[in-house]
Write a structure and sequence with these properties.
Blueprint (H helix, E strand, L loop, with lengths): L10 E4 L8 H4 L3 E6 L15 E7 L9 E3 L5 E3 L12 E12 L2 E5 L8 E7 L2 H4 L3 H7 L3 H9 L2 H12 L4 H17 L9 E5 L4 H10 L8 E3 L6 E6 L4 E6 L4 H5 L1 H12 L5 H18 L4 H4 E6 L13 E3 L6 E3 L4 E2 L5 E2 L1 H4 L3 E5 L2 E5 L2
Parallel strand pairs: 9-10
Antiparallel strand pairs: 1-2, 1-8, 2-7, 3-6, 3-8, 4-5, 6-7, 9-11, 11-12, 12-13, 14-15, 16-17, 18-19
Helix pairs in contact: 5-6, 5-7, 6-7, 6-10, 9-10
């Protein structure tokens, strides 16, 4: 049965894109969606929505294949792909609404080229549009993060990383940029069970960005810390290759944000700022972080490929012991044998130990 459907154009896309490209590249640009006057009233209260679903018409797509090679050469059906060549030439993208000026919407993330007709717009509503989170998380708890990396949506990734880090700052953004780039270069998504390893060379905010974007943490034994004091990370797959990124723009913040750098010196370095100064610094750091997240990775980092990276062995599994003095359980290799034959934990033995804190890795003697 053939159904004849009449679709009205309600607006048109305006941007700098004049030819097709990879969706993840197109989504980095801003666009303006100009709504026709007769439909302008339909935009009332649209500012309440941070994200919108834009449905548009591939007016320059003339044919399609039900089955064929997609990006990367994989053969798929058209309904299992995001190909612009479709039976009804309709496309749909979730975009961020940046602002509204009358009947014009400024959006980011729209993978449609200049002049594309828009046929509908509606709010993105997570309760209805987002997959069931419990089922999604059980299959792959990092699927959302991997999707953000694949689509190049580092701004959203930075927003989520702030939940872990507690605030937004330039070096958190740099960690997101470095980690996301490495994941993309090494195969598209983070691995589990220590196959993917990140080696960080600093314990600054940068490391949290790396942990969040790569999924490598101290807790899952996939994060290695080298106390070099360098803003750098090596991300590698065991038995394969790796990539090292070193932040080479040490004067970037000083040159581009001199007044905010002075504020950092006062509040953080000298610990001499007022509450108002602290609020101003948080606001400034947030603005810089979200500016920085859009910078090309090559502009910020020196990037090198490592063919046979030297990585620690898989984390061994140790037996447990109990301290003869306090009774608490500890990993057997951390025990201290005394001359009297007792096995003690480190605190009870009084032996020195290594501690990682804000000043780096150091030996502590209580």
């Amino acid at each position: 049965m053939v159904i004849r459907v009449q679709i009205e154009e309600i607006g048109v896309v305006h941007n700098e894109l004049i030819e097709k490209g990879k969706p993840e590249d197109l989504r980095k640009f801003e666009s303006t969606v100009k709504i026709q006057d007769e439909y302008a009233d339909g935009l009332k209260e649209i500012e309440r929505s941070k994200y919108l679903q834009v449905i548009f018409y591939f007016d320059r797509s003339s044919d399609y294949n039900l089955v064929g090679p997609r990006r990367g050469g994989e053969v798929r059906g058209v309904f299992a792909s995001r190909s612009p060549h479709r039976p009804n030439n309709l496309g749909s993208t979730v975009v961020e609404l940046l602002s509204r000026d009358g009947s014009e919407l400024r959006v980011k993330g729209l993978d449609a080229i200049d002049g594309t007709p828009v046929v509908d717009i509606k709010p993105y509503a997570p309760p209805f549009d987002k997959p069931e989170s419990a089922e999604l998380d059980r299959k792959n708890p990092r699927q959302v993060i991997n999707n953000l990396i694949e689509s190049g949506n580092l701004e959203e990734l930075l927003l989520k990383a702030g939940e872990l880090h507690g605030h937004y700052c330039p070096f958190l953004a740099l960690g997101i940029i470095a980690g996301s780039y490495a994941i993309s270069e090494l195969g598209g998504e983070s691995a589990d069970m220590e196959k993917l390893v990140s080696v960080v060379e600093t314990n600054s905010c940068f490391s949290d960005g790396v942990q969040y974007s790569t999924g490598c943490t101290f807790g899952n034994n996939a994060l290695v810390y080298k106390d070099y004091g360098k803003t750098a990370v090596t991300v590698a797959i065991r038995g394969e290759s790796g990539v090292r990124l070193y932040y080479q723009r040490k004067d970037y913040l000083e040159k581009n944000y001199p007044d905010r750098t002075e504020l950092f010196e006062k509040v953080v370095k000298e610990r001499n700022g007022t509450e108002e100064d602290e609020r101003a610094l948080k606001q400034a750091w947030t603005e810089i972080a979200f500016d920085l997240i859009h910078e090309p990775v090559e502009k910020l980092f020196k990037i090198g490929t490592i063919r046979s990276p030297s990585l620690p062995q898989y984390a061994p599994i140790f037996e447990d012991e109990h301290c003869d003095l306090c009774g608490e359980k500890y990993m057997a290799p951390k025990g201290v044998e005394t001359g009297s034959g007792s096995d003690l934990c480190i605190p009870c033995s009084g032996r020195s130990y290594l501690q990682l804190d804000g000043s780096g890795l150091k030996e502590i003697s209580d």
